[in-house]
Amino acid sequence: MSATFLGTPAFPTAARAALADTQLRRNLAHATGTIRAKRAAVVGEVDEWERLRLAGAALKDRTLRHLDTYLVQLEESLTRAGATVHWARDAAEANRIVVDIARVHGTDEVVKVKSMATAEIGLNEALEAAGIHAWETDLAELIVQLGEDLPSHILVPAIHRNRSEVREIFLREMGRHGKAAPRDLTDTPAELAAAARAHLREKFLRAKVAVSGANFAVAETGTLAVVESEGNGRMCLTLPEVLVSVVGIEKLVPTWADLDVFLQLLPRSSTGERMNPYTSMWTGVTPGDGPQEVHVVLLDNGRTDVLADEVGRQALRCIRCSACLNVCPVYERTGGHSYGSVYPGPIGAILTPMLRGVGHDTQLDSLPYASSLCGACFEVCPVRIDIPEVLVHLRTKVVDAHRGEPKVQNLAMKAASWALSDARRTAAAEKVSGAVGRVLRGTKRRAPGGRGVLGALPGPAAAWSDARDVPVPAPESFRAWWARTDGGRRGNGGAK
Amino acid sequence: MSARDEILGRVRTALRDVPGTETPADVAVDRPEPRPTTHEDVELFAERVADYKATVVRCTPEDLPTHLAAALEGVPRLLAPADLPEDLRPADAILDEQLTTAELDTVDGVLTTAALGIAETGTIVLDHGPGQGRRAATLVPDRHVCVVRTDQVVADVAAAVARLEPTRPLTWISGPSATSDIELDRVEGVHGPRTLIVLLVG
Ligand code: SF4
After folding, report:
1. What is the homologous superfamily of the domain A44-304 according to CATH?
2. Engineering a disulfide at A269: which of A82, A214, A321, B130 sits with its beta carbon 3.0 to 4.6 angstroms away?
3. C-alpha angle A177/A179/A182, rounded to 5°?
4. Cα separations (Å) of A16 from A152, A156, A373, B70, B109?
């Protein structure tokens, strides 16, 4: 019961498919527009917002430049507070640690609160392979999981689904995995949320082991914080006997007193609220209150590679607020799936290739180009990550990695003129286009405005047209039309 | 090599450009100071809590019993932390002496005090000390009635963090639970208490 981003085509191809999906585009435009307006309003309330941003960026820089010191300090604080600390070099190691903890407790299920880190490492798939169900408890993640689907936005992962689709998924799937949805379920969001409450409560009350991430980890005290809205986080962090938190090594902040800067920056940038409904903080084990066995898995999985890149390092300041997604003209039109990663949008376009490395994968190498470099992402970023700067830096790295290979674009231009100069070849291109279109969307593609567009051109032009919409050539050339109709004065003067 | 040593080694290699003499304090951080509390903050707190679709009732200590009774109407089985001050505790309240989670699921509401309130964000913070119950007690029941004294209200988030003790578990609550996951339509009340009533006394 899971889907992965594996095999996502390069950004331009995936984006083109998404562009043809009008439902998706409407949902996205509505979502990003609404959140943008809310954010702007609550950010405007804070007189010293710019100073807060600078403080947030500086605190994260301080952490990152001395990360070894802070990691060791965090480990000590956590251990002192009764938590067990694990270190994971990569996804496989982190997954193994979590699976082993679940196994020791003889459980075949865990409840999960939404966490980008566990999505990044594919923890749910690893648990399932070990015969352990991982129940996502965030409403949107539940919709995504029950629909065997992929998240499309950091904050509202199911934004590509509308209410009637959610109702169908709940009616069809909930009963297969636990408490069924009421048969008379309507598609009002309140009723759908109530169905999720009833379905998940059963799981919260019986789960022995919970898995979370953390928004922040305080080195000085060993305090972890999870910021959320629905209360599923509180359920996971409080009710089970065992809690495992997978924490990226960039999530640290130096001291308890530093936390308030981020607690001000995050909710306003993220959901556009002064404060999110619930924030939970815990420091190891509290006797008689909450989980009595607490594990923290410190995850590298490519982060030290990002850290080693002096320009790209700033991406590790990211607090995953998703503000950069909501202002991005490219994201707004293509949605999250096109980025082929759990980290979509502008931050995904820089973080994903840096975490996995450039120069060995077309999909990854295409991501730094998924931007018009308009700079809106930098302006909203609460920790002032200069995403355009990193994008340009990564483009250079991609080009450097491919030096010596034939100049793809020149070759493709020549090929395109060859293909378009002959009606027969064009027809072949249209046929290919149709096939590609059907494979991608099951519909004939239309450019914005309804104009027909060609998909991939055949032969060597494919590489070039992959990244562009080539207008469908008219069935009759202008010269042929002029000759046939005497410039429109004769016969059928209209176009064929 | 252990994963720990390997990761720490990678971190050190990655940071080769950072001069060995640099200390964390060398990375300057200029940050806004906590704002001092003024008497307008109580009003602001009440307003902002209400903004989140929580119910806010302002009252004097003398009126409190009347308002408390009203807030607890329709709650046949009320849970109270065993150390809730006696003058707040209704006679028929069930005391939480480590009830099981299943037992918690059978009560209809819970009554607690709080550690502090934050005016700017309309937040109540529980540090789960005396009168506030353990975390599960304010989570599983469907109604949370919380008594906050006006002298517990601080101006902003920075002031709250400065006052709180991080070694305690902390729950920050800004309105009842909510979701906007379906078409961005806000629905109040998902997993936590669907009704939050704040009695602001003083
Ligand atoms: S890059 Fe900045 S704006 Fe984007 S998600 Fe991260 S913190 Fe938010």
Report:
1. NagB/RpiA/CoA transferase-like (3.40.50.10420)
2. A321
3. 120
4. 15, 22, 19, 58, 52
Strands A84-88 and A109-112: unpaired
- Angstrom CA distances, A406 to A412, A416, A460, stand at 11, 16, 12
Of residues A227 and A461, more confidently modeled: A227
Q: How many domains does chain B have?
A: 1
Residue B20 in any domain: the answer is: no
Range of B119's domain? 36-201
**B83 within some domain:** yes
Chain A residues whose beta carbon lies within 8 Å of the beta carbon of residue B115: none
The pLDDT confidence band at residue A154, using thresholds 50, 70 and 90, is: confident
Helix, strand or coil, per DSSP, at residue B57 = strand
The 8-class DSSP code of residue A369 comes to G
Residue extent(s) of CATH 3.40.50.10420 domains in chain A: 44-304
- Per-residue burial over A425-447, b if 16 or more Cβ lie within 10 Å, else e, is bbeebbebbeebbeebeeeebeb
Judging by beta carbons within 10 Å of its beta carbon (0-12, 13-18, 19+), is residue A203 exposed, middle or buried? buried
Cα separation, A247 vs A160, in Å, equals 28
In a domain, B23, yes or no: no
The answer to whether A342 touches A369, Cβ cutoff 8 Å, is no
Residue nearest to atom 6 of ligand 1 (CA): A318
Q: For residue A117, what pLDDT is reported?
A: 96
- Once rounded to an integer, what is the mean pLDDT over residues B66-78? 95
CA-based nearest distance A36→chain B, Å = 12
- Is B24's pLDDT higher than 90? yes
* Alpha-carbon torsion, ordered A328, A325, A44, A281, to 10 deg: -170
Cα dihedral angle (A87, A92, A94, A98), rounded to 10 degrees?
-140
The DSSP call for residue A115 is: -
Instruction: Transcribe A298-315 into DSSP letters.
Output: EE-TTHHHHHH-TTGGGG
* Contact state of A300 with B10 under an 8 Å Cβ cutoff: yes
Is residue B120 over pLDDT 60?
yes
- In this structure, what token pair is assigned to residue A231? 């209360």
Average pLDDT over residues A5-26: 72
Q: What is the mean pLDDT of chain A?
A: 83
- Asked which of A18-32, A74-88, A116-130, B73-87 is least confident by mean pLDDT, the reply is A18-32
Nearest residue to B168 via CA among B136, B132, B128, B130:
B128
CA of B128 to the centre of ligand 1 (A): 32
pLDDT score for A471: 42
- Report the mean per-residue pLDDT for chain B: 94
Set of chain A residues whose Cβ sits within 8 Å of the Cβ of B14: 304-305, 307-308
Atom of ligand 1 nearest to the CA of A387: 1
ipTM over 0.85: yes
> Distance between CA atoms of A322 and A156, rounded to whole angstroms?
9
Please tell me the predicted confidence (pLDDT) of residue A454.
Answer: 39
Q: What is the CATH number for B42?
A: 3.40.50.10420
Residue B55 maps to a domain = yes
**pLDDT for A161:** 84
Kindly tell me if the per-residue pLDDT of A254 is higher than 80. Answer: yes
| Contacts B32 to A, Cβ<8 Å | 48, 51-52, 55
